[in-house]
């Protein structure tokens, strides 16, 4: 824990977007390599969950020789407890579109898509209108950049980048083998930059203010600010932009209801942190910090003492069992075994020791599942079972 | 030129071609990595995760089938971490699988069972999931049975149906725990575009997809004193059967197969090669007749190219996919059905048998033949022309059940009067074979000379290329065929329905103009059929093909029109090709079908 650390509210993302034309014009007049360096030195990492350095992603795609490349904004936002991308797209869509165009300019692409979560269809008319206006401006700037909306169909797994490509290609949304990675073989087999909505919005900030303003926020390995979707037992649920690197204790102090027993950080695929570890937990991307730091898509779900951790886990497992694409053994069968397993323990059909077998199973899932979904089931399972073992059994 | 890279597998440094997968590389290092969803015929899926290996410096394990080697990679295929994970994955598969192995048709030839045995999975701690589901067995098809309780979701069938056959009757449906392999709206297999080719069966690692077997029915017939049980054996069976019974792939076991069938108690053992020769007589004549009608009479109702009709899965495919092109199909029945129609007429008459008491059985490399025998049209003898169709695999099962020591059998020969054949009939079993056989006869009929290829071997139509083309220039024809002078007869051959599709599309678009096309539904032709021994893969198919051509080369007669029993049947029964009797017994018609 960083002593005396204050929770810092930041206001970049939802700051006015009225200057988007200016930012677009300014960026398109800079050398692409300079824009990439700006991003790299900001140390912005992807806000979609995996935390891949954004500048490097753009650079890899820029270095590809293909005449056709794509840019995709991942707006599938399916992680339970996450609703920040929806807010960005409804409040500051021009920032996202501008960022996509700058990315196109940098990597050499004129074709972009927004993959919009099916449930967000109500955003479609407004977004289409924004896209039209945006494209007209691009046209005036002699940059014929096209953006199309693609509606998802409600499968969580389609937020995984390669499953998303498959789904856009009209196929079943099943994650692909990696490598090859999207920057070399993405949508339709072409080099593709796929970024989360929020990631793109942050690049707008960086292009506007320069890398330093962004870099100065946060801590080592976790620079800048991030939107958090706060939900659960909190007197003020909602969306907050906070500086990275905060301690969970400070967070709970600010957002908890005074009786916070645990916080699920990063949604169903994230970790549950029990009260006794709030102080040593830092919110940010993985790296060597004092204490534990957590990768995060930005969901913070608070639980007070009235909540049964068994129910929480049961709920997450139910979600994974259903939302797994079902193609790979460890995830498809593993999720069923975990869910049936904790139920059997709860009912007394299996002893408490069976939980240890299930913990070993989650380890196998983490090592062997084909995509991030199956790999991350271990996070919530092991953090909940290890910290609330009694609640699982009795 | 491929660049070589150095990698280390379990302490052994080896050089492999850049981009080769870890599974392939391991073979070079003398290491076999277990796989399930991987199949040499198919694209890599990487979904079963059984082949996971540890790569130095990486926390997660990688699927060896889907991971390309990189310079300097250090790979462990048998570390504790790998073994634990692999064993747990096998346990998971077993927990989801209806593992009633002793009651399973695939008992003894199941890849999951073998893994469970290799890794000695002796306990099942996980909760058994299969009983929690209400699985329904689809046994409505005359060709195959689909049992989802045995399915491990490796999607080999899905990839087979899409990549080899371009049919996609089977697809992955639903997600999560409900994910399953399903047909359109989960209709039974016999109500959808499924062609019954059985390639999915041949590629299924477990007992989820198997042939509908008629072994007990045939045993009953054999035991029935009042029945005269006749069996015919397709050309490709003799080059596959040995694999089930202790021989290396590519071993010809014709004589032993005949001996075994006699031991099983069949009253007459005959050869589908005979009716393959007959098919050539009929289809060759049909081709020449069509050429005349098109080139001389300019008859707009006669269609070229003429397409072969021996492969019942191809027939069903074209009925579904190109129903407007059924006029292109030869009206000839397949050799199996020609044989069946003659057994209960010509043969019965010759030996003074009551056709009612004849049971006509065929041994086929094919599951679609089961469907074909079941078609309503196939009763031209006044009875069901072929009563039971057994696959090569089912015959092997019967031989084992009868306790016949196959390796020690002495060779026997086929019975008369439908047992003689030529090399032309044999090569029906390989892709390009019907074309080659037809050309050998048709060219000679037209010109009075042998086809202008060394040793009658028409090499351009042989091989494993998906679509192959050949042309023969006709010069100095006999007076009857003078209209063919200078005509370049253009032919094409395709095997695997995905290749048939590309050939058909080029014909539909007008891009290609052929006179004659041969299409076989299965890769490699019948020798790679859905009823052939499992495994079948590119290497095994190549070996079986070599055996087929060796069989042809070794025959004293290699042209269908030289077959003495063919000459006899025309003089005694059919009169001439395309005669009225032929039309009644040997030709058929087709039915347009829906496309789902
Ligand atoms: C199961 C699963 C679901 C995901 N869903 C989303 C999502 O809804 N939105 C998103 O931006 N990224 C999602 N991701 C992460 C994407 O695969 C990808 O890493 C991300 O879009 C990259 O963008 P970024 O670098 O800007 O974070 C998901 C990953 C997994 C494994
Ligand atoms: S881990 Fe789960 S979601 Fe990912 S590929 Fe495997 S089954 Fe599909």
Characterization of the model:
- The complex is a heterodimer of chains A (394) and B (596).
- Chain A is an alpha/beta fold.
- Chain A has three domains: 20-215, Rossmann fold (3-Layer(aba) Sandwich), CATH 3.40.50; 218-304, Roll (Ubiquitin-like (UB roll)), CATH 3.10.20; 309-393, NADH-ubiquinone oxidoreductase 51kDa subunit, iron-sulphur binding domain (de novo design (two linked rop proteins)), CATH 1.20.1440.
- Chain A has helices at residues 20-28, 32-42, 54-63, 84-91, 93-107, 124-140, 161-168, 197-209, 211-215, 248-255, 309-323, 329-346, 354-368, 372-387, 389-393; strands at residues 70-75, 111-116, 146-151, 192-196, 218-219, 222-223, 225-232, 238-243, 260-265, 271-274, 281-283, 292-294, 299-304.
- In chain A, strands 8-7-13-9-10 form a five-stranded mixed β-sheet. A four-stranded parallel β-sheet of chain A has the order 3-2-1-4, with helices on both faces. A two-stranded antiparallel sheet of chain A has the order 5-6.
- In chain A, helix 6 (124-140) links the parallel strand 2 (111-116) and strand 3.
- The radius of gyration of chain A is 21 Å and the shape is globular.
- The two termini of chain A are 33 Å apart.
- Chain B contains 19 helices and 17 strands.
- Chain B has helices at residues 22-28, 80-96, 111-118, 156-164, 199-203, 215-223, 241-244, 254-264, 272-295, 312-321, 335-350, 368-373, 392-401, 423-426, 433-447, 497-508, 538-553, 564-574, 580-586, and strands at 4-9, 12-17, 52-55, 62-63, 74-76, 144-146, 171-173, 180-182, 209-211, 228-233, 268-271, 306-307, 358-364, 388-391, 467-473, 488-495, 516-520.
- In chain B, helix 9 (272-295) packs across helix 11 (335-350).
- Classes of the chains: A alpha/beta (394), B alpha/beta (596).
- At the A-B interface, helix 11, helix 12 and helix 13 of A face helix 2 of B.
- The structure holds flavin mononucleotide (FMN) and iron/sulfur cluster.
- Residues 157, 175, 324-328, 331-332, 369-371, 373-374 of chain A line the site of iron/sulfur cluster.
């Amino acid at each position: 824990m960083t002593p005396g650390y204050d929770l810092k509210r930041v206001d970049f993302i939802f700051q006015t977007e009225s200057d988007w034309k200016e930012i677009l014009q300014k960026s398109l007049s800079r050398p692409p390599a300079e824009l990439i360096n700006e991003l790299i030195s900001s140390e912005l990492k992807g806000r979609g969950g995996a935390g891949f350095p954004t500048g490097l992603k753009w650079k890899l795609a820029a270095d590809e020789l293909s005449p056709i490349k794509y840019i995709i904004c991942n707006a599938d936002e399916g992680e339970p407890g996450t609703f920040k991308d929806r807010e960005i797209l409804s409040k500051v869509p021009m920032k996202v579109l501008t960022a996509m165009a700058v990315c196109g300019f940098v990597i050499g692409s004129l074709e972009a898509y927004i993959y919009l979560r099916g449930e967000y269809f109500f955003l479609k008319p407004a977004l289409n209108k924004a896209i039209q206006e945006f494209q007209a401006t691009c046209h005036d700037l002699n940059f014929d950049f096209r953006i199309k909306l693609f509606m998802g169909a409600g499968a969580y797994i389609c937020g995984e980048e390669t499953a998303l490509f498959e789904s856009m290609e009209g196929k079943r949304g099943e994650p692909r083998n990696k490598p090859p990675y999207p920057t070399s073989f993405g949508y339709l087999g072409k080099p593709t930059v796929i970024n989360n909505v929020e990631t793109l919005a942050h690049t707008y900030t960086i292009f506007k203010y320069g890398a330093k303003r962004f870099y100065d926020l946060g801590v080592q390995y976790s620079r800048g600010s991030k939107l958090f979707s706060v939900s659960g037992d909190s007197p003020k649920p909602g969306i907050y932009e906070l500086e990275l690197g905060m301690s969970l204790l400070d967070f709970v102090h600010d957002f908890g209801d005074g009786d916070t027993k645990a916080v699920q950080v990063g949604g169903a695929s994230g970790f549950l942190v029990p009260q006794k570890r709030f102080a040593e937990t830092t919110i940010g991307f993985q790296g060597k910090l004092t204490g534990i730091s957590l990768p995060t898509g930005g969901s913070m779900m608070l639980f007070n003492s009235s909540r049964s951790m068994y129910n929480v886990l049961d709920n997450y497992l139910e979600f994974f069992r259903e939302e797994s694409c079902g193609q790979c053994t460890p995830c498809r069968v593993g999720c069923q075994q975990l869910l049936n397993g904790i139920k059997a323990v709860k009912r007394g059909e299996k002893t408490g020791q069976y939980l240890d077998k299930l913990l070993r199973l989650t380890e196998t899932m983490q090592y062997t599942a084909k995509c991030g979904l199956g790999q991350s089931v271990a996070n919530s399972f092991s953090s909940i079972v290890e910290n609330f073992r009694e609640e699982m059994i009795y | 030129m491929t660049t070589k890279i150095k990698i280390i597998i379990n302490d052994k440094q080896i050089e492999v071609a850049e981009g080769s997968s870890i599974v392939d590389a391991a073979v070079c290092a003398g290491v076999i990595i277990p796989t399930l969803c991987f199949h040499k015929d198919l694209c890599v899926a990487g979904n079963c995760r059984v082949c996971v290996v540890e790569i130095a410096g990486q926390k997660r394990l990688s699927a060896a089938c889907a991971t390309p080697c990189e310079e300097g990679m250090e790979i462990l295929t048998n570390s504790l971490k790998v073994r634990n994970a692999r064993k747990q994955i096998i346990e998971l598969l077993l927990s989801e699988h209806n593992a009633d192995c002793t009651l399973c048709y695939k008992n003894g030839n199941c890849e999951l069972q073998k893994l469970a045995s290799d890794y000695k999975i002796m306990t099942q701690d996980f909760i058994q999931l299969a009983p929690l589901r209400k699985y329904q067995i689809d046994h409505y098809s005359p060709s195959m049975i689909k049992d989802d309780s045995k399915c491990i979701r490796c999607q080999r069938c899905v990839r087979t149906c899409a990549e080899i056959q371009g049919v996609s009757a089977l697809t992955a449906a639903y997600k999560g725990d409900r994910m399953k392999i399903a047909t359109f709206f989960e209709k039974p297999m016999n109500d959808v575009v499924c062609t019954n080719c059985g390639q999915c069966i041949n590629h299924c690692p477990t007992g989820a997809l198997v042939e509908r077997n008629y072994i007990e029915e045939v045993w009953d017939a054999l035991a029935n004193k009042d029945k005269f049980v006749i069996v015919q054996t397709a050309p490709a069976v003799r080059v596959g059967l040995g694999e089930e019974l202790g021989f290396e792939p590519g071993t010809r076991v014709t004589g032993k197969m005949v001996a075994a069938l006699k031991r099983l108690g069949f009253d007459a053992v005959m050869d589908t090669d005979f009716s393959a020769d007959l098919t050539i007589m009929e289809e060759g004549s049909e081709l020449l007749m069509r050429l005349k009608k098109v080139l001389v009479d300019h008859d707009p109702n006669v269609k070229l190219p003429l397409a072969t009709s021996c492969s019942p899965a191809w027939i069903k495919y074209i009925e579904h996919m190109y129903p407007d092109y059924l006029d292109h199909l030869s009206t000839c029945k397949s050799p199996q059905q020609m044989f069946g129609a003659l057994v209960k007429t010509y043969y019965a008459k010759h030996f003074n048998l009551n056709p009612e008491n004849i049971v006509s059985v065929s041994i086929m490399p094919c599951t679609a033949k089961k469907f074909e025998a079941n078609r309503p049209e196939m009763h031209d003898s006044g009875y069901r022309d072929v009563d039971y169709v057994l696959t090569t695999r089912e015959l092997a099962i019967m031989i084992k059940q009868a306790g016949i020591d196959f390796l020690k059998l002495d060779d026997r020969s086929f019975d008369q009067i439908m047992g003689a054949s030529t090399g032309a009939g044999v090569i029906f079993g390989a892709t390009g074979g019907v074309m080659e056989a037809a050309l050998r006869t048709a060219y000679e009929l037209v010109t009075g000379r042998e086809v202008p290829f060394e040793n009658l071997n028409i090499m351009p139509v042989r091989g494993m290329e998906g679509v192959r083309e050949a042309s023969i220039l006709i010069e100095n024809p006999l007076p009857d065929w003078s209209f063919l002078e200078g005509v370049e007869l253009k032919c094409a051959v395709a095997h695997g329905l995905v290749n048939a599709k590309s050939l058909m599309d080029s014909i539909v678009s007008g891009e290609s103009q052929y006179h004659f096309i041969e299409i076989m539904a299965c890769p490699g032709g019948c020798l790679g059929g859905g009823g052939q021994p499992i495994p079948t893969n590119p290497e095994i198919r190549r070996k079986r093909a070599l055996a087929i051509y060796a069989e042809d080369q070794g025959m004293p007669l290699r042209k269908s029109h030289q077959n003495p029993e063919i000459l006899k049947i025309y003089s005694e029964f059919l009169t001439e090709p395309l005669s009225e009797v032929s039309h009644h017994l040997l030709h058929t018609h087709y039915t347009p079908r829906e496309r789902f």
